[in-house]
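Workshop exercise sheet. Pairs work together: one partner reads the sequence aloud, the other fills in the structure field after running the prediction. Swap roles for the next sheet.
Pair: D.N. / O.F.
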Amino acid sequence: MNKSGLTIIKHFTLIIAGVMTSTFAFADNFLIVSNTEHKYHQEIVSNIEESLTLSGDKYDSIDTADLNDIETSTFSSLITIGYKAASSVVSSDTNKPVLSLLIPKLALNLLIKNHIKKENRYLFSAIYIDQPIDRQVRLIRNLSSRFKTVGVLYGKNSYSRKNSVSETLKKHKLHISDITVLDRTELITETRYLAENSDVLLAIPDSTIYNRRSIKGILLTTYRNQIPVIGYSKAYVKAGALAAVFSTPENISNHAIEIIQKNKTFNYISATRQHPKYFDVSVNKKVAQSLSIRTVRKNKLLKILQESEPKLELSPDTKNIRQVK
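Structure field:
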């Protein structure tokens, strides 16, 4: 082979090597932290793992309880699922990019405020467990025209949302009747009063108000007053709420995968904390029938909500998200 032929082969070899190097340069090593016994968490982890495998990324999945036994510095990014996982990672004062899933907005903001230095807060992205209040209110508006006054119970964990909830209801031309419950012994009494002065009760996530011990009493009280409850999970609809908008494991994992693929290290340019992009709805037909409420079919209702979603646009510096009306 002549000299020119060897030169061509050499150049071709360098090109191939360069392509391989650039390809592997995009590969990352993720640590996924979750409650491995939680079925909802398992589904999300499985979907994310499948996506990372297809994109050639390395990963390790562990239970939150095993976090102390892992050297997180060996991973390029961390993904947490649920409050406990996020709390454990944030409390460890990690300097690695973190994407937190299924965590209440207020809870994450408090964790970051208390444990993360200001200069490192850009490392934390999130998909909250909360649905945006505008989405919940649009659900109410499209469920029935008889809903004019919306009742809301606030507790110490949700009181800070009072202004935004009130403003959103006004924007959709709905009246509000709200009560802040500071004493748990007064919960049913306050619920009864609210039911007598509202057309529908909107449940705002707050463990001091809605929990396993209280939900049955709240649903029974409102049902006796012929007032439906709009929940924030499919489980609440099964328990007796009229309807709910929520995100499935597939919804959450699809949103998370999009964020991961856009920027696998979640740097300050793309680090955003946001409500779930994808969602589903559930309607309890038996409750609707017993309360003589004619509702839109589930699939049609979902389509209406999806088509009326406010469009999101990144601002020029791509750090902030604003709504486009």
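Discussion prompt: Residues 6-26, 313-325 have pLDDT under 50 and may be disordered. What would you look at next?
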